[in-house]
């Protein structure tokens, strides 16, 4: 079943769009990531213009984040105080990112820059995730691995402006969470991603936040930052396709609930390996599209 998207000015397969939204929602619920780093390139592949894909993806991430947040609230794995600090940084970063988006679009270099950024980002993330997941599987087979505890104190604990975060059981400076939130906000606006692939590892390894609380808190931040980004993109760039966003949103809300349930039952290391492989496949497809010669080459001739 084909539907026409007025802002994107293309016709797409409705069941395929729903399937993409659902898959990304599952990733959001399972890993605490927005899923935009997979969603946006997939929209490129089915013919959605990059400007529309980036702006509309933020709306889907907001919907799947809301669905996942409800599930995490039931488990009481959301640190609202830490989430508020992240959110303050995220809103600032989102505002900056929307202006960068506008500058790139006016310069006529948006598609090339975004494609190159995705190749670099996905290649790096996929490689790191795959290596870490393989190490985790090896540690799981080691009977002495459980005796090694991760250090909770890092350089971030020596910075000023310390606050107590009771849910996370931390007493740490508010500066690193604010900075991490700001970076994620810029990524949400410029690349149409939630930023969980940056936030979740950073909060675990830099701040020392417990993994189960990081996932729920990151989803809380994504909800508000991506909603704010969608509003700004609609006002500033008019690049949000409401029909596209709505279809992805329905799939994302359903998928997020499924993902949260899977996360409670399946082995995290094996799931991360599958996600890493998926990220690397998408990266390879983008790279091939950038370097191969198109089937039809157009040129402009004078007169």
Automatic annotation (TrEMBL):
Signal peptide: none
The keyword Membrane is annotated on this UniProt entry: yes
The entry's keywords: Cell membrane, Membrane, Transmembrane, Transmembrane helix
Record field: transmembrane: 12-39, 51-73, 85-104, 110-131, 170-190, 202-228, 240-260, 272-292
Pfam families xrefs: TauE
One Gene Ontology cellular component: plasma membrane
Topology in the lipid bilayer: Multi-pass membrane protein
Compartments where located: Cell membrane; Membrane
Family per similarity comment: Belongs to the 4-toluene sulfonate uptake permease (TSUP) (TC 2.A.102) family.
Protein name per UniProt: Probable membrane transporter protein
